[in-house]
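To the wet lab folks,

You asked to see what we're planning to order before we commit. Fair enough. Below is the target structure as tokens, and below that is the sequence we designed to fit it. If anything looks off to you, flag it before the synthesis order goes out.
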């Protein structure tokens, strides 16, 4: 049986980084040596890529309204399990490797490691997805999804960097010290609560699948997304739908 664990204390070794950067004016992440930020660093999604362009870390943000928030560990686990069953395991040749979760002071985190087949590259890819959940001062919740990936054979070369960058990611905006609502105030868990994370992550996974099939048309000074939007050459993501330029994909 798959279980999502929340250990009380986790000891993790410390690694060195080239620099810590602020993105979107509200989050910070230590960029591992040999990695760089591509594209606009002021709006989501953010893209960090290894210098050899063989591994990447994408950062997304989703807002969860207070009436559909994740209020306890049980509802979080239910949501994550549904993501696994309804999203991740539906990817081509997908296999779940690990599933874990833990409380990290003022935020809650879950980590999903899995493999899937990249049909466009005809290669197996290993993924490390971390969800970071904060409760904001207005009672809503912000879910940050940090999606790392690399070719299966090359993944060990980047695993330490991905783990460390995800681990030290922080949200600087106003937020409470407790992600879950106080004991005794738990609302009845509705069908909507467990699927909130599913909706967010389905969008991300669907985005990645569309990136593999989109074929932008060449045009001077701009690239045209599969959705028809014209984008500047320096923009790695479509400013309308979020799809990534084929020119900036991992080779």
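Sequence we intend to order:
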């Amino acid at each position: 049986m798959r279980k999502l664990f929340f250990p009380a204390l986790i000891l993790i070794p410390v690694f060195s980084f080239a620099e810590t950067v602020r993105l979107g004016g509200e989050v910070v992440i230590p960029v591992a040596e040999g990695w760089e930020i591509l594209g606009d660093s002021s709006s989501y999604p953010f893209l960090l890529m290894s210098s050899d362009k063989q591994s990447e870390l994408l950062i997304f943000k989703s807002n969860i309204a207070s009436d559909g928030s994740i209020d306890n560990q049980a509802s979080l686990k239910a949501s994550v399990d549904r993501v696994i069953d309804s999203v991740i395991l539906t990817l081509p040749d997908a296999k779940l490797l690990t599933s874990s979760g833990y409380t990290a002071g003022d935020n809650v985190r879950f980590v999903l490691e899995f493999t899937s087949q990249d049909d466009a590259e005809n290669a197996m890819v290993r993924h490390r997805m971390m969800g970071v959940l904060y409760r904001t001062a207005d009672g809503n919740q912000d879910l940050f999804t940090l999606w790392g990936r690399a070719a299966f054979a090359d993944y060990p070369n980047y695993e330490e960097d991905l783990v460390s960058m995800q681990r030290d990611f922080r949200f600087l905006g106003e937020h409470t010290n407790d992600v879950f609502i106080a004991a005794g105030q738990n609302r009845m868990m509705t069908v909507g609560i467990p699927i909130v994370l599913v909706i967010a992550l389905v969008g991300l996974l669907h985005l990645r699948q569309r990136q593999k099939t989109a074929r932008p048309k060449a045009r001077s000074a701009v690239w045209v997304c599969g959705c028809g939007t014209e984008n500047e050459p320096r923009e790695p993501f479509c400013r309308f739908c979020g799809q990534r330029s084929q020119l900036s994909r991992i080779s």
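Structural context that might help your review: Residues 5-16, 183-196, 213-220 have pLDDT under 50 and may be disordered. Residues 192-213 form the longest helix (22 residues).

Thanks,
Computational group
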